[in-house]
Specification:
The protein is mostly helical and about 140 residues long. It has one domain: Transferase(Phosphotransferase), domain 1, CATH 1.10.510.10. The protein contains 7 helices and no strands. Helix 2 runs antiparallel to helix 4 and helix 2 packs across helix 7. The longest helix is centred in the N-terminal third of the chain and has 16 residues. The radius of gyration is 16 Å and the shape is globular. It starts with 20 loop residues before the first helix and ends with a helix.
């Protein structure tokens, strides 16, 4: 789909875990994809979704609220820059959320090129993998 930058979209489309609050409100633009990237980053780093629930309705209620936390112990070993990046992408107000171009200039993204597997703790990687397997199940 080609999106006109000045036009707001109003179709309610998406998967509950990844859908942005403004999509649920049927008033969104390109930045809804930035939200989804924030959700994906959260899940990749922790193996758990930022907005979880027993049903789609419960998940969407949490998405509408827009509140998430880094309280799970897995986040103890994740950098503050990574958490800041996720927090920016998961900014509830789409007008305050960064564009894709702005997100790509975040310090965490710029430093990602220097990261090698030797820099990743096996415990952190295994914990996130276990969480991701449980989420998939």
């Amino acid at each position: 789909m080609v999106v006109d930058e000045g036009k707001k979209l109003d179709e309610k489309l998406g998967t509950p875990y990844y859908i942005a609050p403004e999509v649920l409100a049927k008033n969104y633009g390109q930045k809804c994809d930035i939200w989804s990237c924030g959700v994906i980053t959260f899940i990749v780093l922790s193996g758990i979704p930022p907005f979880n629930g027993a049903s789609d309705q419960e998940i969407m209620k949490k998405v509408k609220n827009g509140k998430f936390s880094f309280s799970d112990p897995i986040w103890n070993n994740i950098s503050e820059q990574a958490k800041d990046f996720i927090s920016l992408l998961l900014t509830k107000d789409q007008n305050k959320r960064p564009t894709a171009k702005e997100a790509l200039t975040h310090a965490w993204i710029e430093q990602a090129n220097a990261i090698t597997m030797e820099n990743v703790s096996n415990d952190v990687a295994m914990s996130a993998l276990t969480n991701l397997q449980n989420f998939n199940a």
